[in-house]
Amino acid sequence: MINIAVDGFSGSGKGELCRGLSEKLNLKHLDTGAILRAMGLYFYKLGFTEISEELVEEHLNNLNITVDFEGDKQITKLNDEDVSLEIRQEIIGQMASRVAVRQKAMMKLIEISREFAEKYDCILDGRNITSEVLPDADVKFFLTASLDCRAKRRHDFAISKGFESNLQEVKESLAERDDRDIHRDFSPMIQTEDSILVDNTNMTIQETIDYCYDLTIQKLSTLGKLKS
Ligand code: C5P
């Protein structure tokens, strides 16, 4: 079984890297943030902006989140409705990070993610994959880029999808999320000692993919896990 773990800051290109590596190495890619975003969307639609542990506990059984695949594309469903596009809005990213602070929600995410990783040769991205979800992953990356660069990427993405977006607001939202992800009590985002740090501020997506691909091949080959 091959397990690759990718963590890093919002907008650091984790998704693109995982899509690139999964294509080249024939792995399944699970975007774990999508699961928390689906939970965030659920509470957002109910009109909640503050998320308490009690609220999560009360609603967790009403939240049926499933992940399917159409080819390589992850389809995230909330109570049988495809919410894959809707959850990409920055406001839902904000809601996801508020949900992520809550232990019960995070435990659910960890459970779904580990089950996935036991079934498939895969690559998972999130905030606590290298540290908590897959501490024994074969290869681990931690991605970062300057806040300005990350905000610009997220802003451009939102515009391309037809969402309203304001660059300064996106920047503030990402900074707030980063801070929350790093400082939460349960399963915070950390850069583990065995993760390879990749700052791609001045790299294209393709350069990031190529760089990480070479390192992955080396590591898998050392482990005798390279598929022919
Ligand atoms: O990666 P993405 O921006 O989709 O994640 C949305 C939010 O979900 C993050 O800001 C973070 O708070 C949370 N998250 C997390 N742990 C994960 C994946 C996402 O805390 N494994």
Structure overview:
This protein has one domain (3-221): 3-Layer(aba) Sandwich (Rossmann fold), CATH 3.40.50. Helices cover 50% and strands 17% of the residues. The protein has 9 helices and 8 strands. The protein has helices at 14-25, 33-45, 53-59, 90-100, 103-119, 129-133, 147-160, 167-183, 205-222, and strands at 3-8, 28-31, 65-70, 73-78, 81-82, 122-126, 139-144, 196-199. Helix 2 crosses helix 4 (90-100), helix 4 (90-100) packs parallel to helix 8 (167-183) and helix 7 (147-160) packs across helix 8 (167-183). The model has no long low-confidence stretch (mean pLDDT 96). Bound molecules: cytidine-5'-monophosphate. Cytidine-5'-monophosphate binds at residues 10, 32-33, 36-37, 93, 96-97, 100, 109, 126-129, 177, 181.
Summarize the structure.
By secondary structure, this protein is α/β, with parallel strands linked by helices. It has helices spanning 14-25, 33-45, 53-59, 90-100, 103-119, 129-133, 147-160, 167-183, 205-222; strands at residues 3-8, 28-31, 65-70, 73-78, 81-82, 122-126, 139-144, 196-199. The protein has a five-stranded parallel sheet, sandwiched between helices.
